[in-house]
Amino acid sequence: MPEVQPPHWVLVGAGHIGTLAAAYLRAAGHGVTVIRRAAAAPIDTTLIFADGRGTQRLRLPVTTPESIAKPITYLLVACKTPYTEAAVSPLRLADTATVVRLQNGIGSLDNLLPGGARLIDAVTTSAVKGTPERHEVVAENATWFGDGGAAPQWFEGLARHWPHLEWTGAIRQRQWQKLVANAAINPLTALHDVPNGQLLEDETLHARMAAIVREADNLLTALDSDWPGDSLASVEAVARATAGNTSSMRADVQRGATTEIDAINGWLLEQGARLGVDLPINREVCSALWER
Ligand SMILES: NC(=O)c1ccc[n+]([C@@H]2O[C@H](COP(=O)([O-])OP(=O)(O)OC[C@H]3O[C@@H](n4cnc5c(N)ncnc54)[C@H](OP(=O)(O)O)[C@@H]3O)[C@@H](O)[C@H]2O)c1
């Protein structure tokens, strides 16, 4: 087979996870250009790996939506979900563009892509924090890409440079598993300003977490009768494994930023409204966060 020329990606959201993805893409020989709202100097940033691999300087070219001459053929979306529409709608995408969505939650790109675009969802359990200049890679765990079809030609080469990256035919299941954990852990830790492990320690918070999971499982079973519908143990395992951590939603609330609640519990409410399934505790946490 002839060598496949690695794609050149336009990256929306060179934050923590977007910068880590850019480092892996570069290592695999892919091109990466960052889109910013306003013209800016190239990004000069540092990744600090927790596993003793040391640090990596990364310099990424930056452009603006108006400066891109040709329609975009490869787009990586890694901004926070509330900013997705503002970031993606000014972009001119090729009709058959490939778009990778590396975000928590579901649905943030709905109605924003051309009809012929290939949307690949990415679910990662890696963790990166820090500042825009210093990205601390806390954990490089499993990442799954998928869209229900076969992997594109460039995927195999990328997987050689992106630790624990897999193509899956069951991306929806991975997304739903992560969604249930995010729906249960993020809003409660944000509203009560506690680390994740407190949801296991505090009886009242644990009962609310279990109620959110039960409602989510009911809804997902209504969407797909094959959904196992018993997510509590795996959500508890996530809370245990990340007991000392501040969830991203708690961090957003602490710094007064818009949260990703619409793409997480809000998505569950939307699906519930469509199917006539009530999710009162999910509605309550959404309202509490919307009112902030
Ligand atoms: N960090 C993690 O460990 C992790 C793990 C799993 C999943 N995720 C998910 O990954 C997504 C990104 O999270 P993150 O932690 O990487 O967020 P982040 O560090 O806040 O990065 C978001 C980036 O998006 C940029 N952005 C916002 N609006 C934009 C626009 N209109 N045009 C271009 N860029 C724009 C921001 O730039 P400015 O700073 O200039 O606004 C920032 O660089 C979220 O959905 C999150 O839930 C993150």
Descriptive notes:
The structure is a single chain. The protein is an alpha/beta fold. It has two domains: 8-169, NAD(P)-binding Rossmann-like Domain (Rossmann fold, 3-Layer(aba) Sandwich), CATH 3.40.50.720; 173-290, N-(1-d-carboxylethyl)-l-norvaline Dehydrogenase, domain 2, CATH 1.10.1040.10. It is built from ten helices and twelve strands. The strands form two sheets. The protein has an eight-stranded mixed β-sheet. Strands 4-3-10-9 form a four-stranded mixed β-sheet, covered by helices on one side. Strand 3 (43-49) and strand 4 (54-60) form a beta hairpin. Helix 4 (171-192) packs antiparallel against helix 6 (203-223). The longest helix is centred in the middle third of the chain and has 22 residues, at 171-192. The model has no long low-confidence stretch (mean pLDDT 96). The chain binds NADP nicotinamide-adenine-dinucleotide phosphate (NAP). Catalyzes the NADPH-dependent reduction of ketopantoate into pantoic acid. Pfam families: ApbA (PF02558), ApbA_C (PF08546). This is 2-dehydropantoate 2-reductase.
Which secondary structure elements does this structure contain, and how are they paired or packed?
Elements: E1 8-12, H1 16-27, E2 31-35, E3 43-49, E4 54-60, E5 62-63, E6 72-77, H2 84-88, E7 93-102, E8 118-124, E9 127-130, E10 134-139, E11 143-146, H3 155-159, E12 165-167, H4 171-192, H5 198-201, H6 203-223, H7 232-241, H8 248-254, H9 265-275, H10 280-290
Parallel strand pairs: 1-2, 1-6, 2-5, 3-10, 6-7, 7-8, 11-12
Antiparallel strand pairs: 3-4, 8-11, 9-10
Helix pairs in contact: 4-6, 4-7, 4-8, 4-10, 6-9, 9-10
